[in-house]
Structures are given as structure tokens and as C-alpha cells.
Amino acid sequence: MSVPDFEVEIFQNEYLPEGGRDVNAVVTVATSGTASAAPAPGADSAEIIIVDCSGSMNNPPSKIAEARAATAAAVDVIRDGVAFAVIAGTHQATAIFPPDGSLAVADPQTRESAKRAVASLRPSGGTAIGQWLWLAHRMFTSHPAQLRHAILLTDGKDEHESAEDLGTAISLCEGVFSCDCRGVGTDWEVAELRRISTALLGSVDIVPDPAGLAADFSAMMATAMGKQVADVSLRVWTPQHASIQFVKQVAPAVEDLTGRRTDSGPQVGDYPTGAWATGESRDYHLGVQIAAAGAVGQEMLAARVSLVATSPSGPEVLGQGLVKAIWTDEEALSTRIDQHVAHYTGQEELAQVIQEGLEARKQGDEDTATAVALAHQSGNEDTAKLLAKVVDVVDVATGTVSLKKKVDDADEMALDTRSVKTVRTKKQQDK
């Protein structure tokens, strides 16, 4: 297996004014490798597809039919040698393939057997997503694979267990496998699936029309098949007189990692980033506060950022970057704002305002006006288009809007799930 090379770049204004203590930096992590770079061997990977088979999946019948087709399409993408399984989820969880609750090794015969089992799926019963996750956990931990990934599909709310039950299951699975979540139709809860995808380092999105499931499932599985390095952490060291204020992924989507810190040594904390493949690039926004300001002309290391992979022989450093602080009395230097920091600060604000605005919209408020202006200013055209389906834009530049009297549920849920997706700075887009 060829492991990709990790490159770490730090973007910041290193200069602080006299008395300044707050340091901001954008950390860009990119992977590269040769054309021969290959994904992890099949024995190192495991996949589980979790399909909602509750009674509502029969309303309309095309929903379960498209879910079966999507699962079969995903199975076709699984590489030979990869361990895999399919779970049917209702108010309980049932191993559909293999039926004994183990994981099968992908080859032409087992893929065909799995598709025959999937073709027999019929909707009945309720929805208890925590039970589905419990079974996936048990099946994953019975196999030595390091790269573990699940796809979870539902069309409804988690009605047959408590929020605490779901939370317990999510906590159990955290750090064991990643999970991409999809909601089909409009009767599911964005917050529920986001809770799962956030904890399990996956994605969440809406598939409003069941006919779109097969293409989405195939794409998710193809991405999973390209992963090469599992359990990579962003390791941040700070000196004794500095503290971490926040660590957030800001591209390709906003994800606050601050609360996910695991101490790994004196003044050192690890933040999970999941698995990586060749050709990936992600950006992280780091905020550090220094306990006491230095004298003019003094320079110090505010943080050391490393990418660390877990391996049988111990932690392996894949890349590293330095965040600095230099105190100056030159206003022109200390007031300069790095374009990357400014850009992503705006993107983070946009995502937050949309979340708050959607909640306010339910109360008849017009807070989405700020989101429209921010989307325009940041150049996030995709989000601007989603916003336009929820509000009528009177003036883009000022964010003057009027609420649409009738908003399609799918449009509102699409804005909710996709509001955290960001655009890169122009320099990065041009690379």
C-alpha cells in the first residue's frame, strides 16, 4: 500500500499589537501521492450498509424499491477483499447479509448473494436508530479492519427509543467507525442525523426524491473505497502560557472539533479527523490565546500543529506546521488580516446565521436576511441559491428579504443540511 504524503500549510498574520494575546491561523492539510498510490488492502477495510425498513418506507412503495436498488448499487462498488454486511433497521436491527451477523469478504459471489438478500427487504415495524448502531458496532468490532465505514439511510424520526438511548449508542460507536447519513423524503429530523454524522465523522444530506438514492450511495461507497489512512488526528501543542480557544474544520464543511479534544501529553491535545485518501484537502481554523503579551519585537511559538496517524507500532507524524506570534508597535503590520482567516471566519458566521435563521423563520422572524448578505459577500453561490428557495431576495447586497409564504419542506431541509458546506478561498480554488 502506498500511503499519501501529507502537506501542512499555515496561513496567518503573525503580528500582534502591543498587549495582543489572540492568535488566529488557518491550517491547510492536503494529501498527495503518485499515480500508483492505492487504497488500503481489502483486509484493512470494512463496510456496513444500514437500510431503514420501517413501515413508512412503503409510503410510497417506490421508496423501499429505490432503497433496495441503492444498496445493491453500493454493494457493486465494494472492492474484492473488503469485509461488508447489510443491516435492516426497524424498531430493532437485523443482519440481512450475512444472516449470522458476521462480515462477508467481497467477491463476485458474495456481492451477488448480498444483492439477492437485499431484494427481499420488505417494510414493517418502527424506527430505533440506536439499535441499528449497536448492531453495526458489534459487527465491526468482530473484524480486525482499521478502516470502518457505514452508510445509514432513514426516512423517519427515531420514535421507538429515547434520545438518551440514541446518545448511548452514538457514544459507543464514536471512534469505532465513521458514518455517512442520508434522509430520504422530508419526514426525518435533520438534527437527529446530524448528531450521528458529527460524532461519527461522516456527512449528512437529504435525498428528497428516492430516485436519487442509487447515485448517492454509489458515490459515498466510491469515496470510502479510496481511503488509505485510518484514524488521523490533528495534534496541537501549545506552550504553558497559551491555551486553545477553538479548533474547527472549516472546509469542505464547518465542523467544530473543540469539544472532541483528547489530551495526549503535557499541553498537547488530539482532535479527530477520520480517514484520508490521496488528493484530499481540508482546512482547519485554530484559535490560541496567550496568557501574557510579549514585549515589542519578541517572537514566540504559539502552537505546533501535527497530523498523526495511529499505527500498530505507535503514533506516526505525517506532517507538521508552526503557528507564530510576533509583537509589534507598527499598526500596519498588526492590523493586517490574513485572507484565509477572514474568509473562513465569514463562512463560519454564515453557517451559524443560517442555523439561527431557520429556527427564527419558524417563529416568523427574518434573521435569514443576514445570511443572504453573508452568502453574497463570501461568494458562496450554492448557499445563496438554497437561501433563495426559502426567502424572496429584495436586495442581495444589503440582505433585504421577505419571507416566502410557502416553503417546500425539502428546500428548507436542504438548506439546513448543506448550510455547513463552504467554498475555498480563490487562491485555493485556482490550485
Low confidence ranges: none
Report the count of strand segments.
20
The rounded distance between the terminal residues' Cα atoms is: 27 Å
Described by strand count, sense and barrel closure, the largest sheet is: 7 strands, mixed
Description:
The protein contains twelve helices and 20 strands. The protein is of the alpha+beta class. Strand 8, helix 4 (163-173) and strand 9 (178-184) form a beta-alpha-beta unit. The chain is globular and about 75 Å long. Strands 4, 5, 6, 7, 8, 9 and 10 form a seven-stranded mixed beta sheet that branches. The protein has a six-stranded mixed beta sheet with strand order 2-18-17-11-15-14. It starts with a strand and ends with a helix. 44% of the residues are buried. The longest helix is centred in the last third of the chain and has 24 residues, at 339-362.
Task: Give me the secondary-structure topology.
Layout: E1 5-11, E2 15-17, E3 22-32, E4 45-52, H1 61-77, E5 83-89, E6 93-97, E7 104-105, H2 108-119, H3 129-140, E8 147-154, H4 163-173, E9 178-184, H5 190-199, E10 204-207, H6 213-225, E11 229-237, E12 242-251, E13 255-256, E14 262-265, E15 268-276, E16 281-290, E17 299-309, E18 316-328, H7 331-334, H8 339-362, H9 368-378, H10 381-388, E19 391-395, E20 400-403, H11 409-418, H12 426-429
